Amino acid sequence: MTLTDAHSSFDTLLASISGRLARVGVIGLGYVGLPLAMTVARSGFPVTGFDIDPGKITMIEAGQSYIDAVSHQVLSAQTSSGRFRATTEFAELGTCDVIVICVPTPLTKHRDPDLSFVTKTSEAIAAALRPGQLIVLESTTYPGTTDGVVRPILEETGLKSGRDFFLGFSPEREDPGNKDFETSTIPKVVAGDGAEAAALMEAFYGAAVTTVVPVSTTATAEAVKLTENIFRAVNIALVNELKVVYEAMGIDIWEVIDAAKTKPFGYMPFYPGPGLGGHCIPIDPFYLTWKSREYELPTRFIELAGEINSAMPRHVVDRLAEALDIRAGKALSRSHVLVIGLAYKKNVPDIRESPSLKLIELIEARGGRASYHDPHVPKVPSTREYGHLKDRPSVALTQEIVSGFDAVLIATDHDDIDYAALAEWAQIVVDTRNAFGRRKISGDNIVKA
Fold this sequence. Notes:
Radius of gyration: 24 Å
Number of strands: 13
Shape: elongated
CATH superfamily of the largest domain: NAD(P)-binding Rossmann-like Domain
Strand order of the largest sheet: 3-2-1-4-5-6-7-8
């Protein structure tokens, strides 16, 4: 392709994006991909969604959403209008003008980045790659992935970034359960591999979301997402450590935070809990610690935060065992515990990296029995680490059932739980979320942890 042809491809794609005529392919129809696909379709683009799970395709074709952030009505409207369709046929990627990668980036058991989903997806794109396409990575990863991993795979075709196709990165910023923001209203950080790719990134996302924040390089954009979540992970670790220290001093960390946050400057409240959950905060910091080894630079602060947060489930189970021993004279090994909340955060069905799974495992490792109640998770889905818990059902919350447990452990403070009834029915309640304190519910059987 000549320089003139390259400019022609850019001009054609830019015009197609500006006119909302460009067909957009979204790969990975999960918590990030499906909301993005709906946002892009609602802005007027024709969208094809790609996923390896035929079950998701079947539900989409029936207008049934499996993501809380996307209603059945919105999904059905976009599918019936013809603006959105989904498929498992990745050969159709060649028909797309813009392709957005929204696949998982987990950690290995050794806490190293697992980019297998990104590399396999890049290879699938390469098999259908043609001149004049914009390829975008949204999956969270370490700085340099777009340029050092995705680009080489695509360029193995003989096509070159910036000459034949265009490449960019835009970090996803989804917050499941947050009713104040949706994909279209969350500012979108964008970067391109070269000036023309950057211009296409701004044009594409600017057509779908209210605010676009351009940065200079794809590595910078990758670092933005890591910085956001490392900031949260470190501050959560700090309050978790303070909780343990203040607990030993007889000081209520929740009261301390409530008072501290009245200061109108120089302080931002973060809250302790039973551990970190979700796909981002427990994982993203380790992408940077891994990459930093290449530069022989330590990341002691980040790694320490990870150690503190990872230790919280064990601390909670220790507090649970202590409460059973002191208040009921019963060992954890002879107790049956009801865990409230399997999801990693309140009011969502997402159990990715949920500390509740670890809590159940730790209780049972110490000889106890554990059941759970979660109005959003009727049974435990299959997970890589906790396959032995698959299909375990959520139990009902009735006086007869709750009173039959030796202790109730509040791991996730869903709003649609009758906490007053729990306080009345439970023999012992161990509260890791201050669910009772916030509701001004007190009782001799309630223990904060």
